Amino acid sequence: MLIYLVDDRGEEGEYAGFLYAHKDSLPPFELQVFTHWAALHKAIETQTPNIIFADMRFDETSTADLYGDIEALANTDRFCGN
């Protein structure tokens, strides 16, 4: 299984750490971590992953914003422009 993770902290982020820490209890996977959406888009053009995880603080985002353009929301200062 190919997993793409977008996290501005890269491999040092808690999401990558969580996946690696639990690797033995999860189905076999290859993890590729991106620090910016643009790099993710380029990678998708080459190989489509089975799943994409995005490090975004949805708990602090209004429901109305979540139903809009998620890519535009990710590019705002609220999400460090990536």
Describe the secondary-structure layout.
Layout: E1 2-6, H1 14-21, E2 30-34, H2 37-46, E3 51-54, H3 63-66, H4 70-74
Parallel strand pairs: 1-2, 1-3
Explain what this protein looks like in three dimensions:
The chain has 82 residues and is of the alpha/beta class. It has 4 helices and 3 strands. It has helices at 14-21, 37-46, 63-66, 70-74, and strands at 2-6, 30-34, 51-54. The protein has a 3-stranded parallel sheet. Helix 1 links the parallel strand 1 and strand 2 (30-34). It is globular.
Computed Rg: 13 Å
State mean pLDDT (0 to 100 scale): 81
Based on secondary structure, the structural category is alpha/beta
Largest sheet: 3 strands, parallel
Q: What is the distance, rounded to the nearest whole angstrom, between the alpha carbons of the first and last residues? A: 25 Å
Order of helices and strands: EHEHEHH
